[in-house]
Design goal:
137 residues; mainly beta; elongated
Amino acid sequence: AGETSGLTFKHKFNNGNAFEGIVSFWPYTIGVTGLYEKNMSSGVAGLNWYFGGGAHVNAGSMYRRYYLYNNARDKNVYYVERRDVVAVGVDGILGVEYKFKPVPFAVSADIKPFIETNNYGYTFLALDPSVGIKFTF
């Protein structure tokens, strides 16, 4: 939900640890994230919470739109600049997941704060909340 969408694969190990891989898409960019997570029981059947961290890499175009007023033609004109960008960063994650017992589905909600830097020297910090619907097997 929101500006970033993606596909996730999560593998839980028998000791409560998990690996989560995410392929994410947002305007003009694709990203790959790897996370190591610790899963904990909440005491409610099917409801778990998890936390962890990892890293990501994004590649795509940074999109900027510049507006300017052109006096000679008496109208507004805009110019678009796109730059190819590669960004790397570190991620944290904290969330909850509920597994429906009779069907192979789970729902989750988490927040994945990250900091990243790109090849143009810009650094970004964001919270990156998400809601997920998962097929389980």
